[in-house]
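Reviewer 2 asked us to include a model.

Predict the structure of this chain.
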Amino acid sequence: MQSVCFLRQVVLQQGIPFEMKLPGKAPLAYDSLTKGQFDAEIGKGMEDIRAGRVYSADAVEEEMHRDYGI
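Predicted model (structure tokens):
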């Protein structure tokens, strides 16, 4: 039923019925970082680990299956 409503909106709007945007922030590229910037990014990751902000491989796999069917 949702796809029927979506397709109706496409016809009524004569296009996609919502604004499409690319993400505003590009991922960091290792080559573009200075040694200090790289060390700071690694430090952020280490702080996440120390604070328990981590996900198990099983949890990541479950989320990928749920969200993307893979």
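The mean pLDDT is 89. The helical segments are 2-13, 35-50, 57-68. We have added this to the supplementary material.
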